[in-house]
Amino acid sequence: MKIRVSAVQYHLHTIRSFEEFAEQCRHYVRTAAEYDAEFILFPEFFTTQLMSIGNDQGRALTIDELPDFTEQYLKLFTELAKESGTHIIGGTHVVRKAGKLYNTAHLFYPDGKIGEQPKLHITPTEVKEWNMSAGDGLQVFETDKGTIAMLTCYDIEFPEIVRMAKAKGADVIFCPSCTDDRHGFHRVRYTSHARTIENQIYVVLTGTVGSLPTVDFMRANFGQAAIITPNDIPFPPRGLLAEGEINHDMIVTADLDLELLYQVRESGSVTTWRDRRTDLYTDWR
User: Fold this and answer.
1) What's the CA gap between 252 and 47, in Å, rounded?
2) Angle CA(55)–CA(58)–CA(61) in degrees, nearest 5?
3) How far apart are CA 67 and CA 58, in angstroms?
4) pLDDT in tens, the chain (285 residues)
């Protein structure tokens, strides 16, 4: 089975209304749909663009006010998934539950169903500046195109959680990201490559580009989408099916061949998933 995926390098810039945000999202979804994408990935924290709308005093909204857009966000992306007939990983949006803020990835199914995965590992900035809370459980999501997981940015830097996702059946990890400089970007990028090799899976990665001059901690973005494979003979030598131009407003698209994953797990140059030594170190269970 092959799955066509598109990853959006979402351009952050100041806007004045929710409708401006909605129109930008519609543009990306409709463009990806023109390429017959079956999954569309948006980046982490892309809805912070809504904070630039500001309040009556002309000041940017705070992170505590971002969850006020949750109902509109869910409605918009539910409609976009139905309209396009695609699965949309709607980046992450900050939601409030029981008085706590969670950086949550959302999967919008074409039939209107919504899956959620809170970010499990929270960066120091998220904790100190935005008072984010960590999710407390990993889910994988069944689709008619296979089993996927959503692990956000910092999550991909922890091999244990990706191994759990693979053990639960995920063949593709969608990784929405948001990094402000080259160091953060390369941490996420390099560890994404490592996870594909360790678990013989695909990772679809994207990040924010542009800037929000009025929004604290979103003034700088360094991003690039990449569709990453294991490093074995059936795949490109660098483990890259496609990648975007750094810091450009664009979409990248490629086909993921799940059958190739099954082949290399069984008889690849290396069989890293099968050869793990659970007699020496604890498996995910």
Assistant:
1) 20
2) 40
3) 19
4) 899 999 999 999 999 999 999 999 999 999 999 999 999 999 999 999 999 999 988 799 999 999 999 999 999 999 999 999 999 999 999 999 999 999 999 999 999 999 999 999 999 999 999 999 999 999 999 999 999 999 999 999 999 999 999 999 999 999 999 999 999 999 999 999 999 999 999 999 999 999 999 999 999 999 999 999 999 999 999 999 999 999 999 999 999 999 999 999 999 999 999 999 988 987 666
Burial class (CB in 10 A: 0-12, 13-18, 19+), 225: buried
* Active site amino acids: 44, 119, 153
Residue 195 exposure: Cα atoms within 13 Å on the Cβ side? 35
Looking only at the bridges linking them, the beta strands covering 2-9 and 39-41 are: parallel
Q: Give 122's contacts (C-beta < 8 A, 6+ positions apart).
A: 103, 132, 133, 134, 154
Backbone angles phi, psi at 160, to 5 degrees: -60, -40
DSSP string, 190-243: HHHHHHHHHHT-EEEEEE-EE--TTSTT-S------EEE--SSTTS-TTSEEEE
Contact by Cβ (8 Å): 48, 15:
no
Q: How far apart are CA 93 and CA 102, in angstroms?
A: 8
Q: Angle at which helices 70-84 and 18-34 pack, to 10 degrees?
A: 20
